[in-house]
Every structure is written in C-alpha cells, then in structure tokens.
Amino acid sequence: MTDYIPPLKDMLFNIHELSGLQRVLELEAFDGVDADTVDQVVEESGKFARDVMAPLNISGDQAGCRVENGAVVPPAGFDGIYEQFVANGWQTLAHSPEYDGMGLPEIVGQAAGETWQSANMAYSLCPLLTNGAIAALHAHASDGLKSTYLPKMISGEWTGTMNLTEPQAGSDLAAVTSKATPDGDRYRVSGTKIFITWGDQPYSENIIHLVLARLPDAPNGVHGISLFLVPKFLVNEDGSVGEPNDVYVASIEHKLGIHGSPTCVMTFGDGDGAIGFLVGEPNKGLACMFTMMNHARIDVAVQGVSISERAYQLARAWALDRVQGGAPGHKGRVTIVHHPDVRRMLLVMKSQIEAMRAAAYVTAGQLDLSHHATDAAERAAADRRMALLTPIVKAWMSEVAQELTSLGVQIHGGMGFVEETGAAQYMRDARILPIYEGTTSIQANDFVSRKILIDEGTEIKALMEEMRQLAAEIHDDERLAGIGAALSVGVDRLQTGVAWLIDNAPADQNVPGAASVNLLMLAGTVVGGWQMARAALAVTKDSSSVADDAAFRKAKLLTAKFYAEQIMPRADGYLKAATAGAETLMAMPEDSF
Predict the structure, then answer these.
(1) pLDDT digit string (tens) for 504-523?
(2) Which domain holds residue 553?
(3) Of 414, 456, 502, 555, which has fewest CB within 10 angstroms of its CB?
C-alpha cells in the first residue's frame, strides 16, 4: 500500500508546455489570472487530494453505500470531504464569475480534477456530475432558472445529477418513456431512471436532477425528448429550500467497483408528479443534455489518466521494494524493477499515462478557446478541434485505463489479485470508464460518422497535417529523430485508415460500425504519439519550464522514445483490423455465436 502523491511536476509541465495555457491566459475572460495563480491552485488541489480525499479511498470502497429509510447512506467520512470541498471553494473553480464562480480556465479545472479522481474516484464523481449539470444549465436554461440554481450549484451547496437512461432503454434514448405533463409554467414529471450517479446523498442542501422526459404531444424517437430540471426539494421564492419534491431513490446498484459512489434507481412522480422546469426548447432536450455529456466525456478521459496514475504509483512502489530473483549484472537477489519485463510493464504504464495527460489537457485548452476567444474564427476552429478530440480521448483513454490498471495488478503478481495491496480496486474502479457517458462503441460511431464521414474528414485531415509538420520539424534532431519517424509512420497509418473509411463506407452500411473502434484506437494511439513528440521537443529547449531539471528532461525523452518504439507500432494492427471490412463480421449466423 502506498500513499497518493500528485504528479505535479508532469502535470505543470503539460499545462505550461502543451495545453495551450499561454494563449488561453491572453483571453479577456481570464484577465487577472496568471501562471503563478494556476500553479498555486493546482498544487493546492493536489494537497487536498492527498491529505483529505485519498485517506478515505480504501475505507469507502470497503464500506460501500446503502439505502436506509428511502435515503442513501454513503461511506463514513465522506461528509468531511464534502464539507471541506465546499468550504475551500473547489466546486467554483472553472465556472463563471457571473454566478459566483472563480472563473479559472477549464485547463485548471481538469488538472485539479485529475488529482481528485486519482485520490478518490468514488467521491469525486459527485462534483464531476455537478460540473456537467452546471454546464448544461449555463448553456440552455432560462435566466430565471440560472439565477435561482447556478449560484448554489457552483458554490457546491447544491449538487447536480444526469438522469438519462431507463430500465428498458439502456443507451437507446429513443426508448425513453418518462413523461412530463404541463402544469401552468411548470411540469409534472413521472418515470423511473437507472444508473444515476450520486442520485441521493445527505450532504448537500438540495440535489438538482436534470431529467429527460416526453411531453404529451412529443413525436416518437430522440426528436421527442425534452430536458427538465427537477429539484429534490422545491425552492421558495426567496431562494431557500422548501418542501420535498415527489422524487426519491428506490434502490442502489451493487457494482463491480466505485463502491463509495451510490449509483441509484430514481423514481419520479409516484404521487402527484415531481415538479420540474423545462430547460431549453420543447423536444430539444437531447441537444441540451449533450452539453452536459460532452463535458462529462472529457471528465471521464481525465478519469482514465487519474486511475491509471494511481495504479502506476502503487505498482512502481511495489517494483522498487519487492525483492525476487536475480538479474544480469547484479549479485544476489534484486528488486523486481531490475527485471526487463517489469520495466517494460512500468514503461507501458508511464508512457501512456503521460501521453493521455497531455491529450486531455490539450482538449481542455480547446474547450477554453471555444467558449472564450473573442475572435469568431478562433472560437470555431477550437470548437471543431475539441469536437474531434472528445470521442478520441474519452474512448481511447478509458480503454487504455483497462490495460494499465490490469498491468498494475500483474506487476504485483499474486499479491495484486488480493484486495490487501489495493491494486485490484483500481482495476475494478476503472472498468466503468469505457461504459458510462457513452460506451466505446458509441464514441467510435460518433468519431467515424460525425467527425469523419459527415465532411470527408476535413478536421482530422487538418490535425494530421499538424502532426506531419511536427514530425518534419524534429526529423533532423538526432535526439528526436526516432520519435519523429515513428510519428510520421503513425500519421501515415491514420491517413490510410481515414481514406479507406471514406472510400468504402458508401458501398456497405456496415463498414463504419465494423471499422469504428479500431480506427478510433488508431487515432488515439497516434494522438498520444503526437503529444509525446511535442513533449520531447519541449524538453530540448532552453526556454522550457523544466530547463533546469536534467533528470525530468532525460526521463521525458526516454519515455517518449519508449512510446515511439513500443506503443506507436500498435497503429499497424489497428489499421489492419479497421480496414478488414465488414464481410466476415456480418457473415456469422446468429445461431453460431
């Protein structure tokens, strides 16, 4: 067992060198925010994660949650995290000052979130979902709803949830049957929702549920869904909390992991109907909810980094301490870090964590620009890049987290399979990441259909051109030539895959779905290689923020070289699988499965 240590040096390197923070801080929206403020906030978030949240991670997993008298009882001690989290203003971090937010860049919010998710992913899901609900309300709610609900949610006094799926629907939101009946200027909402993260808890004064439901005259399918704000407690005209609403938790799920986070079955309107308020336009609720979901998808990408980092720290500590066997060039028994294959596994973890961290922060930087750049062309360009990167980072990073947390168990050997070391918890907790907020398949379908086929790959072609320019820039530097060559080959593979998809999709409607996941994983692998090449170039410059840290610079170069040599070749396999076509896939008779 080892304590969590926020990887601040690499986090701050990525923030300052790769994320685009310098341009973001030039924006009028962040006037008064400087690099020193960013550093201080990230460092303090790491301290809070280490000292307050991490100590309750294991006990929260062991205790889990339960329902008593119609209310969720979370693990002991989580109330203390909540109280301090709100008192310290952490929920306000990246939200608008118009509603009492701190107004810091999303880059900073995601970096702070990384430390919290590493320290205690189960608890941190509560503020994560609240952030998404805030984003949806800020973008789509009426001024009245914003003024009533956003200040309390941004302060953390009230929390937020996302209520999409139902027992019969799963990811197919067209099958949603929850109803909303007009009642004056409000609505009566009824129905059952499942898989509602932190759908109930005793900490916040109120819980604000965002609920998808159908109006009486709504058309069938996804075009007939509206979004409603349904508070746990009604809010009085003076803003105080009033009577309980007709919404309650029916039960909680018994899960593989994140035991400290209650995943609830929520019942709306068993009595007179839960009072709700329309968010956005009637029958346009899915578009509103996607604001929340897309924000959450970037959050989940960061969770992939976070849980992998925690697994890596535990595995690294074990490898440096566990004595077993001998190794060439050493007398007597050695710690297992001396064994080549253990070193390989550790570097598979380290290199991909660093690549994922950079990709996540870059995506957050594009989110900042898309919201706050004063130039319309710059906003539009950032929005296109963020839209392209979001399904990539969500799916690729959540899938890689499965590999890395599993390697964390493997490095421990048999001791990793028992709960006492803690390695198994990270593997269990990580398993939800490719499932919630849109499965890997959903992200991949979005990637191939809406990000490539819809405009014949305009944005991904622009991204590949940027990657090629970087590969050419570092080609003649002997320190970086191998990294640049690997990036160039990776871009070739991605370009081939994108072109194949565009050429073959019109002839066979099964081609996009058959190719989607492998093509997305190819894109993620190459995006990671692009970020590691950028990082390698940055540490060779005397102007780098780590110019005086020779050990960090050497380690970063070696890590980037390892990624180029042992991770980038995966692009070949992904390309071959992506371009295999759909014929064999669809030829298998159903009764032969």
Answers:
(1) 999 999 999 999 999 999 99
(2) 444-584
(3) 414
